[in-house]
Design goal:
Layout: H1 3-21, H2 30-35, H3 42-53, H4 56-68, H5 80-97, H6 108-111, H7 113-146, H8 150-197, H9 205-214, H10 233-250, H11 252-259, H12 264-298, H13 315-345, H14 348-376, H15 386-394, H16 399-435, H17 441-465, H18 472-481, H19 484-496, H20 502-519, E1 522-525, E2 530-533, E3 544-546, H21 553-571
Antiparallel strand pairs: 1-2, 1-3
Helix pairs in contact: 1-8, 1-16, 3-8, 3-11, 3-12, 3-16, 4-12, 4-16, 4-18, 5-10, 5-12, 7-8, 7-15, 7-16, 7-17, 7-18, 7-20, 8-12, 8-16, 8-17, 9-12, 10-11, 10-19, 10-21, 11-16, 13-14, 16-17, 19-20, 19-21, 20-21
Length: about 575
């Protein structure tokens, strides 16, 4: 990377530390530190909500997902507007009325301390697990971009985010999130412009869409109802509705953003900003991945986007690798020619020739990835390396540093929010509550900063221990789906089931978690027409796939909690 890009990157990181820490001097108690004295404007809280979710996972993983598959992932976000409306109607007034610090403290008066601690504990576990992946995933890519050891990039992200979150509190988090969101969106739009500028003269935007559509890359809606299919309209509108209701309505990382606003009206505005903007933004990011695919039809691309391919270990592997490379080179040229012909003539025959050549091209590419997996004896995937390769090779000097700063910004905008939320739940729901509120505000403020530092260390260390994943965007949603539905079910009992009591809520919560982990282990073999249950430590045989995909675990958990909670509550009513 050029020294100009390094200068831009260092300037951005220095500004982030200064901007995030300067708010800390105004924090005199935990209300200032954890909720910014409920004084944040709605637009800042709203942008922070979006920045928290639109992380480096979105920046890198979603574009890569659209590149290797299509745009159906946008269906996950179709439920956001409906979820935001429901949250604005029911949960926002409830949280502001009780002046809560956390979503989970509202459970104690009705369901007792055990339910509050258990629900808060599930949040700490789920977010604690996800936070390591949030740091590790972009760090692998940034290590490639910067030419630095992986350990260094993890430490840069973890240390900087921990530093300004610890010193600046939630006011510092929201302040940096606003700027980070702006830098990230600039980077995405700039990349899109570079792609369009570097397409051949005879291939315009409409032609690029035609080629992508010929390959079904523009497929965004799937109307087939199939529980084993990850993304379709049904999972996006119905199953993902439960995920979004729980994420934005009961997950402290999001709830804390709109609890910092001074009124119900301001909180609602902050959420509706995401309701209006999130689906178009996600559609644009997926479209960027699709356009990146078209871009590499006409521009040089490696057979694997990873930094370095493993060396063949046997003579047979070396021969196969040479043959794959030859096929890839010839198919690259042939695919360009058939693409130009398809654009010029728009004939059915030319389109089919292009589609067939593209299929053969991707077969050769997959053969190389399979060979790499055989050599290394690990699961090899280059999805998360596609956008970084484009940035390094095709973005002009100076802008490379700014776009990499955008990736850092996207990573830290999620990490800081999660660190702040983990601290809030640890202090308010656990330490302060079990301590009996015996100390003064200065003690709890100091404790909050220490706990933030501790969570930052835990997250950074866990990131160092994690390996790479196929798709980092899917990983985070999968981790969340194990917990979100069941936690949402407890809040449904709280707000709408008058007969529900603490015994029912706690039993329902544990039952929901058990149901989710049980159904997640069911697999189906289409060739054998067989449903089988496998324990987590058992190896899944070839030919088996998930019988129920992760989005459907959210309504499953919620329904089990409500049903079991109601039955237990009516069977053992409170005395």
């Amino acid at each position: 990377m050029h020294w100009i890009d390094w200068t831009v990157l260092f300037a951005f990181l220095a500004y982030t530390i200064w901007d995030g820490t300067r708010s800390g001097k105004d924090a005199h108690n935990i209300n200032d530190y954890l909720l910014a004295s409920r004084s944040m404007p709605w637009w800042a809280a709203g942008l922070s909500v979006m920045a928290t979710q639109a992380s480096a996972i979105t920046f890198i993983g979603t574009t890569g997902l659209a590149y290797v598959e299509d745009m159906r992932f946008v269906q996950v976000y179709l439920a956001i507007p409906f979820a935001m409306i429901l949250i604005c109607i029911f949960l926002v007034p409830f949280f502001h009325k009780v002046q809560a610090f956390t979503a989970y403290e509202t459970l104690e008066e009705r369901f007792g301390l055990k339910t509050r601690l258990t629900t808060a504990g599930l949040f700490l576990i789920s977010r604690g697990l996800a936070l390591g992946a949030v740091i590790a995933a972009p760090s692998y890519v940034l290590a490639l971009l910067l030419g630095l050891p992986l350990t260094i990039t993890i430490l840069i992200i973890g240390v900087i985010a921990t530093l300004y979150t610890m010193l600046g509190g939630v006011a510092g988090v929201i302040s940096t999130d606003v700027k980070q969101m702006a830098v990230m969106m600039f980077g995405l739009i700039f990349c899109f412009g570079i792609i369009m500028f570097n397409l051949p003269d005879e291939v315009g935007f409409g032609d690029a869409l035609y080629l992508a559509g010929s390959l079904d890359k523009l497929t965004a809606l799937d109307l087939n109802f199939d529980l084993s299919e990850k993304y379709n309209v049904w999972s996006g509108v119905f199953a993902a509705l439960f995920l979004m209701l729980s994420y934005f309505g009961t997950d402290q990382t999001q709830v804390q953003r709109y609890l910092t606003t001074p009124s119900v009206a301001q909180a609602r505005k902050s959420l509706m900003l995401s309701a209006y903007a999130k689906v178009p933004m996600q559609f644009f990011i997926l479209l960027l991945g699709v356009m990146l695919y078209v871009f590499f039809i006409f521009n040089d691309a490696p057979i694997s986007f990873r930094a370095a391919d493993p060396v063949a270990q046997t003579e047979q592997q070396a021969i196969l690798e040479k043959q794959i490379a030859q096929d890839y080179t010839s198919l690259t040229s042939e695919r360009q020619q058939t693409a130009i012909e398809a654009v010029k003539t728009r004939s059915r025959s030319a389109q089919q020739a292009f589609v067939q050549t593209d299929k053969a091209f991707n077969t050769a590419r997959q053969q190389e990835l399979d060979l790499q997996a055989e050599i290394t004896n690990t699961d090899i995937n280059d999805t998360n390396y596609i956008l970084p390769y484009f940035i390094l090779k095709y973005i002009p000097i100076g802008f490379v540093g700014l776009i990499i700063a955008g990736i850092f910004a996207a990573a830290m905008s999620s990490i800081d929010s999660e660190l702040n939320a983990l601290t809030t739940v640890s202090i308010v729901d656990w330490y302060k509550r079990l301590d009996g509120d015996k100390h003064d505000e200065a003690h709890y403020l100091s404790s909050s900063r220490k706990v933030t530092f501790l969570w930052g260390v835990i997250a950074t260390v866990s990131a160092l221990a994690l390996g790479e994943t196929k798709s980092i965007i899917e990983l985070i949603n999968q981790i969340g789906s194990y917990f979100y539905g069941s936690i949402l079910g407890v809040f449904v009992l709280l707000l709408w089931v008058k007969k529900a009591n603490g015994t029912g809520a706690l039993t329902g919560l544990l039952s929901g978690m058990l149901a989710v982990f049980t159904f997640d282990r069911f697999f189906y073999s289409e060739t054998l027409s067989d449903y089988s249950f496998f324990l987590p430590w058992q190896q899944i045989p070839d030919g088996y796939s998930k019988a129920i995909e992760f989005l459907w675990l959210n309504p499953l958990g919620a329904f089990v909690v409500v049903i079991v909670g109601y039955i237990v509550s009516t069977s053992w009513p409170r005395k």
